Automatic annotation (TrEMBL):
The lineage of its organism: Bacteria, Pseudomonadati, Bacteroidota, Flavobacteriia, Flavobacteriales. NCBIfam families: pyrF_sub2. Residues 16-254 form the Orotidine 5'-phosphate decarboxylase domain. It comes from Salegentibacter salarius. Belongs to the OMP decarboxylase family. Type 2 subfamily. GO terms for biological process: 'de novo' pyrimidine nucleobase biosynthetic process; 'de novo' UMP biosynthetic process. The keyword Lyase applies. Keywords: Decarboxylase, Lyase, Pyrimidine biosynthesis. This is Orotidine-5'-phosphate decarboxylase. It is an enzyme of class 4 (lyase).
Length: 272
């Protein structure tokens, strides 16, 4: 999916919500554990209940890899279900990959070709030859970690080198890479005040913003500093939605939580 098609979906649904599918087998309703594939059944229920209110889903790959072959099969079934039932939805493999060129090429093939995700999150620490293989696929994107919402972000990302923060050097350097128009970026919602300066460097690229909800980020701050005339934002919420309830109607409650966020986003969009 191209960024233009994603933007069309955002205005159509009046939402820029991304739902994170970070499925912890120990936190899903216990009655699902008797199913042949409890992870997929949980995802399917969440997707069916929330798809009207969001434009993207983001499975965190670690939660699937932790369950071995069965977890990977659940991931495959989830992405295939999205492709078949909701092809208009944007998909993100939250894998945070990044390695030497030939290894990155295999990671890119896995997520962007074999599984058919629209995008994959990528760590930039090893530089352009670790990222460019993810940018070789037409209508696919790499989402580069720029400024994250975790406590350790300050260990490196905001350290100054020659008078400039490292995350700004990452942003500026990445713009020189081949097919850099296929880049999106991760900026945590708890770092919303940084978005104004970030937008001066990347005025048009989409930004994926985790940390709204459970991590304490505020939607209005993200929109104030990060929204463009074409929106340019995907705001992710995971635990606040998918673990809103452990009861048998967990999906219905998740849908209600997603709708609340969608309504807030619709209000922000009306200000454009």
């Amino acid at each position: 999916m191209s960024p233009q098609e994603l933007t069309e979906q955002i205005f159509k649904k009046k939402s820029f919500l991304c739902v994170g599918l970070d499925v912890d087998i120990d936190r899903i309703p216990t009655y699902l554990l008797s199913e042949d594939d409890p992870i997929f059944e949980f995802n399917k229920a969440i997707i069916d209940a929330t798809h009207k209110f969001c434009v993207a889903y983001k499975p965190n790959i670690a939660f699937y890899e932790a369950n071995g072959v069965e977890g990977w099969q659940a991931l495959e079934k989830t992405i295939n279900y999205l492709h078949h039932e909701y092809p208009e939805i944007y998909t993100i493999a939250d894998a945070k990959r990044g390695d030497i060129g030939n290894t990155s090429r295999m990671y890119a093939k896995t997520f962007l070709k074999d599984l058919g995700f629209d995008s994959v999150t990528v760590a930039p620490y090893m530089g352009k030859d670790s990222v460019e293989p993810f940018l070789e696929f037409e209508n696919r994107q790499a989402i580069l970690l720029a400024l994250t919402s975790n406590e350790g972000a300050f260990d490196f990302q905001t350290q100054e080198i020659d008078g400039e923060e490292l995350y700004k050097k990452v942003l500026k350097t990445s713009k020189t890479w081949e097919n850099s128009e296929r880049l999106m970026y991760v900026v945590g919602a708890t770092k919303a005040e940084y978005l104004k300066e970030i937008r001066e460097i990347i005025p048009e690229n989409f930004i994926l913003v985790p940390g709204v909800g459970a991590q304490g980020g505020k939607l209005e701050d993200v929109c104030k500093y990060g929204m463009t005339k074409n929106v340019g934002l995907l705001v992710n919420s995971s635990r606040k939605i998918i673990y809103a309830s452990e009861s048998s109607n967990f999906a219905e409650i998740a849908g209600a939580k997603a709708e609340v966020l969608q309504q807030q986003m619709a209000e922000e969009l009306s200000k454009l």
